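Appendix B, record 7
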Amino acid sequence: MVHPYIAHVRENSGEIQSVREHSLHTAKLCQEYGVPEWKDFLYVLGLLHDVGKYQPTFQRRIRGEAVRVEHSLCGALAAQEKYPMPASLMLEYCIAGHHAGLPDGGFANDTEEQSTLQGRLKRQVEDFGEYQRELELPELDVPKWTQLLIGDCGKQIDRLVDKFAFLTRYAF
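Structure tokens (predicted):
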């Protein structure tokens, strides 16, 4: 079987796992390990984490060419495009950091050279839109998700910030 989009190749056996297969398995695992209120959100997180592997340069790399390519940023960009704030922001942090750790958020005026989330989101990526043909992104009940986030914070912004940070780490 020809695998046009490869996520992993096992060194010892040469067994190939497609990006679609890897993404669906990761999404299901994330969902299984999550608390009930977060299962849908975590499914999306797992589904999007490696959509950057649909980039042509990543596919050249996985097939043995010595090229560098950043793939973790693409899922963050896809989350930003598909889902509203604040859910998209939490997804962006987790997906962009899934190899190097949660990034510093940074500031809106950060440049693409900076390693902050805001800086990295400005970097150019190759077309990875093929993921939309292979993976179906579910809708999230963002108002319900947001209510879970803010529900017990009252008007205390410091409590909300702490809870967002905690739940981002939980999702990560």
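Remarks on this record: Strands lie at 6-9, 16-18. The first strand starts at residue 6 and ends at 9.
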